[in-house]
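Working notes for the structural subgroup meeting. M.R. asked for a predicted model of this chain before we commit to crystallization trials. I am recording the input and output together here so anyone reviewing the notebook later can reproduce the run.

Input as submitted:
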Amino acid sequence: MPESTIPAYITSLIRHFEDLRDGTHGGSVSRKDKEAHFEQAVKLLAPIARQVLTEMNMSLLLDTGQLTETGLRRTADGGLNASWALSWPEQRASGVQPIMLEAYFGGGFHHPHLRGTTVHDWPLNVFSDEDAAAQLSILRAIASSDLHNLVYRADYRIVPTVTANPATPLPRGANAWE
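Returned structure, recorded in token form:
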């Protein structure tokens, strides 16, 4: 299959596995150089992460959410991370964590990853604007999975768009728990 027809998520996995094989990340071997790649990846990924959380806020939270971001910071284990979080009144009242998108490069890690509040560990291989844009579907999947899991930790009533609209009958034979 020509490289241009390989889906972005497959390309990410291939890069990830090649990095493991070669002991590199983005062609770099030293931790310092890998961290420089990570810092650039966070900058490139930030507008995509904001887009995903803004979409969820507007469509599911009826614009009641608050988006916060940490920027790049050093972690207790000597690694680096940056996160974008979406919180809203119903989520805070229920005691569950917000929806979060996090880029992290653990102190003992070979290369960085993406994760959410409840969904963990997708390889972070972003070296260009195109790579960052290609992560849109991955970030949407992480954030959507997080919300799904948070609903099961709390209740469907944490989603304002569901409680704001009258009940819609399910199609015949459908199960509300599927």
